[in-house]
Amino acid sequence: MLETRASRKRTKPEPCDPLSIERGVRQLLADKVTGNLAGVWLLVAEHLRLGTWDLLCGWTGQPTAQIEPRLALQLVHEAAICTAGIRADRTLHQRGGFELANGLPFVATDIAVHQLLAACTIRDSQRLQVALGKIRRASGHFQGKLLAIDPHRVRSYSRRRMRERVEKQGSRPVKMAQTFWILDADTHQPVCFTTATAARSVIEATPELMDLAEQILQPKPQSTLVLADSEHFSGELIADIHRRTGFDLLVPIPNRPAHRKSFQQIPEDRFTRRWAGYATAKVPYVMKQGGTYYQFVERTGERPQDWRYQGFLSTSDRDEVDTLTRDYPDRWHIEEFFNVDQPLGWQRAGTQNINIRYAQMTAGLIAQAVIHQLRTRLGEPFSAWDANHLAKDLFFRIDGDVRVSRDVITVTYYNAPNAESLRSHYEELPEKLAADGISPEIPWLYNYKLDFRFR
Hints:
Elements: E1 2-5, E2 11-14, H1 18-31, E3 33-35, H2 42-50, H3 52-60, H4 68-80, H5 98-101, H6 110-118, H7 122-138, E4 146-155, E5 164-165, E6 174-184, E7 189-196, H8 202-217, E8 224-227, H9 235-243, E9 247-252, H10 257-264, E10 271-275, E11 278-286, E12 292-300, E13 308-314, H11 320-327, H12 333-341, H13 354-378, H14 387-395, E14 400-405, E15 408-413, H15 419-426, H16 429-435, E16 449-454
Parallel strand pairs: 4-8, 8-9, 15-16
Antiparallel strand pairs: 1-2, 3-14, 4-6, 5-6, 6-7, 9-13, 10-11, 11-12, 12-13, 14-15
Helix pairs in contact: 2-13, 3-4, 3-7, 4-13, 7-8, 7-13, 8-9
């Protein structure tokens, strides 16, 4: 038996053996379903294109008929519609077939989902990230030439005793939950992440993050430039990335008095004037821990009394002007990514159980991948919407019904925004998928096909 959400205030145990699940799903389809959450069915088509079901079956270690991969799909869809879970003050059942889209006749409660997640280890979630990343790389979601790395921290209100951090200079230290991310700066898509307790530093977490990226991208020697911030300036970390033949690192040198003094002592003839008020120099940099690298120094200002310096350390010899003026500004895309997609489950601290948190955030990574495919396919205006906007005005706002005829589940939308754009991509979906070499049968819906109608 599994605890399910029967209403806003009531839970109900339901049988969760394969036969009971199949009977429940087929009965719901036969009864027909209507509601305003029918928009989530658009993601089912993208799951077929991405291969989500095989990933979830591999992650949970269970075959198609079992409940575990279906609960994992519920978690992915909860992330996609930017909900933190099922609480007493809201419910997602009987709202347009949300439960059916997961291959279930019910919506499982948080306790049931947490029991699934607690059984998944960090290693399981990392393997899922690598498998997802390889699929996305093969699908062209990553270029793998320019990467941005950055920690992402959100305030935690846990009662546990834990290390406190100062996020902004001048503010008081507070409890933080932290994750560490790698983003493809050319396509603006996340490659992978890792998470840890608040006590873990960037220096300790980044090698593990680079291991995941190396497995996903499999870069050729010195083909990928990693853009970091000054928090990553550490001899130990720089040496670690330098040893990886596929990655180069560019990291700002902290603006400390000793570094500023060394910049000012660089001879004038080592600087090359690039344009008015901007000059650069490339000089060797020897780390105290050992290792010689390249120091790129920017100098701004026309008159000597106006000169300002900023230094960067590079593990490889490259053109400093292109690197500093073209490549490094692209690091800002990782902040844009957080602003656009963090509602998928990455803006809240959640539980301090690392296994559960890792699994929840990895489900959000799958949700982000299928939403990216949806945005790309539909174009404007959907491609410019952030995750909250997409959830509110696409997934939560479309009235529709779900019914079955022979071997096809038909979803009919009555008030879809930009219906003509949606119609061109989703009407006659089985034929479109077959033309792309994708099986139109949905494994978690007992090999029914899916089609859409727009009224």
